[in-house]
Design a protein that fits this description.
This protein is mainly α. The chain has six helices and four strands, in the order ββαββααααα. Helix 1 packs across helix 4 (about 100-110). The longest helix is centred in the C-terminal third of the chain and has 27 residues, at about 130-155.
Length: about 160
């Protein structure tokens, strides 16, 4: 049984029709509502923002700025090209690399391309541990800004 490995449809997934695709392939259903929850719970929002909510260390992922239409494989390809930096930041910020199944990635891709679902996004979507991590990072940022101001004043 390969369910849950992201390689085959899980029991709760709905594979989309695959016209023109090999019989050995399927397209997962894209669920932007699940993607919103995953974007927050997996920690994507620590570095990326949606409509100004989230981190500033990586590219904002506002649906309004996404190329349309976007091939989901192109989105994945862009992630792959930035994998070294993303994994480094995940380990720095979250303490570990984010693990995503294919279905989870499909849902996140759906979310970052869905303006209506993004309107529902708030800091409250994040689990407490992610909110605490972001608050701590913001405090450190403010502390470093104060240090820079002190250095300027000293000169």
């Amino acid at each position: 049984d390969n369910h849950g490995d992201g390689l085959s449809p899980g029991p709760a997934s709905t594979a989309l029709p695959n016209p023109g695709m090999s019989d050995g392939l399927f397209m997962p259903a894209y669920n932007p509502s699940r993607g919103r929850i995953l974007f927050a719970s997996k920690g994507c929002m620590v570095c990326h923002s949606i409509n100004g909510i989230g981190g500033e260390d990586a590219t904002p992922l506002d649906a309004a700025t996404m190329p349309r239409p976007m091939n989901p494989f192109e989105f994945s390809s862009r992630m792959w090209r930035g994998a070294d930096a993303m994994i480094y930041m995940q380990r720095e910020e979250l303490g570990e690399q984010i693990e995503l199944t294919g279905e989870e990635l499909a849902d996140i891709i759906a979310f970052v391309h869905d303006e209506e679902e993004q309107k529902k996004f708030s800091i409250e979507d994040a689990p407490a541990v992610i909110r605490e991590l972001m608050a701590h990072a913001e405090e450190e940022s403010v502390d470093h800004e104060g240090e820079e101001d002190d250095e300027v004043d000293a000169n």
